[in-house]
User: Fold this.
Amino acid sequence: MKIIVLLTIFISTTQAQEKFAMMQTMTPNLMVHDVNKTVEYYTDVLGFEFVMSVPDSGQLDWAMMKNGAVEIMFQSVPSLAKDVSVLAGLKPGGAFTLYTRVADVKALHAKVKGRATIVHDLTTTFYGMEEFTIEDLNGYYLTFATPVK
Assistant:
């Protein structure tokens, strides 16, 4: 009888895992006013590297960038509204934030100070992180954090 119960539990667990695919990564695709200017900002201010774009050159509709293990995509308002029609008429930015853990938040803060709009200066939180928040050129809020040592 014990063997049958264990087999039933194994089958139920396996079926649940198959029903919901295990997620591996999440890459935000942010609606932006101008992909080219956004690529330039994320390169110059935040140290991201260009990965790819559509089209390959000229005025871009979409681009992917990377900094370490963090990937982010940017898509123009008209292009994204065409791909996902429910987004037509919406504007970039708003109440959306990106929380990014970095190796050295103080060094990043020093690098972006005077080059980015810092909306919440460097502070130590009650949950043990040292962090600050900027607003990018499209109105998105990015918080950068490092655990307090």
Summary: The radius of gyration is 20 Å. The beta strands are 29-32, 49-54, 62-67, 70-76, 97-101, 117-124, 129-135, 141-147.
